[in-house]
Amino acid sequence: MKWYKGSQEITTGFTQQTSINSDGCTYNGVSILSITPTYLDNGVRYTCYVEPNPAVIGDSSKQGRYTLDVQYPVPQVPTVTSSTGTFTVEQGTTFTLNCQASGNPSPSYVWTSPDNTNTTGSQLVLTLSTTGPYVYTCFATNSLTTSPLPTRVTVTVQEKTTTTKTTTTSTTTSTTTSTTPVAVASSTTELLTCTGGEGLHSTGVLAGAVVAAVVITFGVAVALFVLYHVSRKKLQFYFFHFSFLTRI
């Protein structure tokens, strides 16, 4: 029996036990792989591969697959970019600020503007007609984030120059603005359960979390169980099962 993370074989971190049944012809086996997932494990597939018994004619390999759905808070401040490629624009230019962050569940976003108004969504479309600096703040959060993480950018609006054949005129109006970041409420973390069966499965696991009995909370490892039933004459049946370890 072998374990794989993606296409890479795992050589440590698991146990394996077998026991012969009372009929003396079959035996049962269980292999347990313990892992402590991080956000980097989100979407990673683990596979247990049971090799065929060469002494049994017609025996074939069996495998069970388990895809991790790792729940984790927004790990770092969001990234803000501008559709123009710069935060310096001319008067009257329409442009878009984009805010992006990682997290599972997917983050939600709130923008605060210099006039202290709030706008939801990852994009903020602006058309500024008055010159001066403008500070915009994007907050990113999800249901596991305790405090929304902000990123502030300063947009500088320059005067728009009009050129004629004889003269060039320009006007500048300076406006001073300020903004006060607002807190964005994050919802209570939901408790998740994890079940398994034959074939491919996907279930919730908290990043860096402990898997205890039925409920997944922060602090322990996930245990992936594989059970199989083998006959000395023929591999009779096989099934893939998952359970959990208590807090460690």
Automatic annotation (TrEMBL):
Entry's Gene3D superfamilies?
Immunoglobulins
Which keywords fit this entry according to its UniProt record? Membrane, Transmembrane, Transmembrane helix
Keyword Iron-sulfur listed? The answer is no
Keyword Transmembrane helix belongs to the record: yes
Matching InterPro entries, A to Z?
Ig-like_dom, Ig-like_dom_sf, Ig-like_fold, Ig_C1-set, Ig_sub2
The protein's matches in SMART domains, at most eight in alphabetical order, are given as:
IGc2
* Residues that span the membrane, as ranges: 205-228
Q: Which residue numbers delimit the Ig-like domain?
A: 1-58, 78-156
Q: What is this protein called?
A: Cell wall protein DAN4-like
The beginning of the lineage is: Eukaryota, Metazoa, Spiralia, Lophotrochozoa, Brachiopoda
Q: Which gene encodes it?
A: LOC106181019
